[in-house]
């Protein structure tokens, strides 16, 4: 049992450090607005485009990323019409080659990580924070309705350009 307590303390210390370090970034300040708006994503993308080490093109509601694996067109969901979705490149985690994409849809916002080396896409639905050693990624997802259950914190281990869930903490703040 002492190992569980130590693991919990380590996880909470890690989460606290990541949260405090992330507050200084524009992306985090934008993410924690009460109502996230497209204008925020547009500003983040505009600032980021000249800094990323790959080519990004926008064609209507498509976002094209030129990765090492070849051209990657970020998907637009066909559940409704093209006008219902709009993807934005809002962050790039260079150390692990992950592009953070916000997609505004008819049902809200989704968050995807796109590996710019392999093209692999992972839906995380929360803003990712990279650990100082670049070996782990923390994602906090907030449940916005009763159907989405509770808030969720996931720590992923990064190995060989893939994400592996290492620790999942679920809870309700009521």
In summary, what is this structure?
It is built from 3 helices and 11 strands, in the order H-H-H-E-E-E-E-E-E-E-E-E-E-E.
Describe what you observe in this structure.
With 174 residues, the chain is an alpha+beta fold. The chain has one domain. The longest helix has 21 residues. The radius of gyration is 17 Å and the shape is globular.
Task: List the secondary-structure elements in sequence, H or E.
Answer: HHHEEEEEEEEEEE
Major sheet attributes: 4 strands, antiparallel
Number of domains: 1
> Main sheet: which strands, in order across?
4-5-6-7
Overall SS class: alpha+beta
Strand content: 35-45%
Q: Determine the N-to-C terminus distance.
A: 27 Å
Estimated helix fraction: 10-25%
Number of helices: 3
Mean pLDDT: 73
The 3D shape can be described as: globular
**Strand runs, count:** 11
Low-confidence stretches: 22-29, 31-35
Task: Summarize the helices and strands and which ones pair or pack.
Blueprint: H1 2-22, H2 26-31, H3 38-48, E1 56-59, E2 62-67, E3 70-74, E4 86-93, E5 98-105, E6 108-115, E7 121-123, E8 127-130, E9 136-141, E10 151-159, E11 162-171
What are the main properties of this structure?
174 residues, alpha+beta, 4-stranded antiparallel sheet, 11 strands
């Amino acid at each position: 049992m002492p190992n569980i307590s130590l693991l919990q303390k380590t996880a909470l210390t890690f989460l606290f450090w990541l949260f405090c370090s992330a507050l200084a970034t524009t992306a985090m300040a934008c993410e924690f607005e009460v109502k996230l708006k497209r204008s925020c994503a547009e500003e983040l993308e505009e600032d980021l485009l000249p800094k990323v080490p790959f080519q990004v093109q926008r064609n209507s509601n498509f976002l094209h990323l030129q990765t090492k694996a070849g051209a990657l067109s970020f998907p637009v969901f066909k559940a409704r019409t093209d006008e219902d979705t709009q993807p934005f490149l809002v962050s790039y985690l260079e150390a692990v080659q992950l592009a953070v994409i916000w997609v505004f849809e008819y049902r809200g916002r989704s968050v995807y990580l796109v590996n710019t080396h392999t093209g692999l896409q992972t839906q995380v639905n929360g803003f990712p924070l990279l650990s100082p050693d670049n070996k782990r990624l923390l994602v906090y997802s907030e449940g916005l309705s009763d159907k989405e259950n509770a808030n969720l914190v996931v720590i992923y281990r990064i190995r060989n350009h893939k994400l592996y869930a290492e620790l999942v903490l679920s809870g309700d703040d009521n």
